[in-house]
Specification:
The chain is an alpha/beta fold. The chain has a three-stranded parallel sheet with strand order 1-2-3, with no helix packed on it. The longest helix is centred in the N-terminal third of the chain and has 10 residues. It is elongated, with a radius of gyration of 18 Å. It starts with a helix and ends in a 29-residue tail after the last strand. The relative contact order is 0.16.
């Protein structure tokens, strides 16, 4: 849980750089003030839509800047991606 003193400091900040694990990133998204206008950066460890953004409230996650170097399987934009569908044709034959 974010303490009152941390909340007060976040209210006054212009930038919030969130370097946490997914559980705490989701909690921070829920608890952060929505009206302070601070730029919210989220590290790549916690950039998952399914495990961080949805539990942290999607509406509160709208203005977060994050980076990811993988295809998040819980992100609908990848639902038809051939690289995420299992393919037995590329597996070596076991004889």
């Amino acid at each position: 849980m974010i303490s009152k003193s941390v909340k007060a400091e976040i209210h006054q900040s212009d930038v919030f750089f969130n370097v946490t694990t997914p559980k705490f990133a989701a909690q921070a998204i829920k608890k952060l003030p929505k009206s302070n206008g601070a730029v919210h950066f989220l590290n790549n460890v916690s950039a998952s839509i399914g495990s961080v953004m949805k539990p942290g409230r999607l509406r509160a996650s709208q203005n977060i800047i994050s980076s990811a170097y993988l295809k998040d399987t819980s992100d609908p934009q990848w639902k038809d991606d051939a690289g995420l569908k299992p393919s037995t044709s590329s597996w070596p034959s076991i004889s």
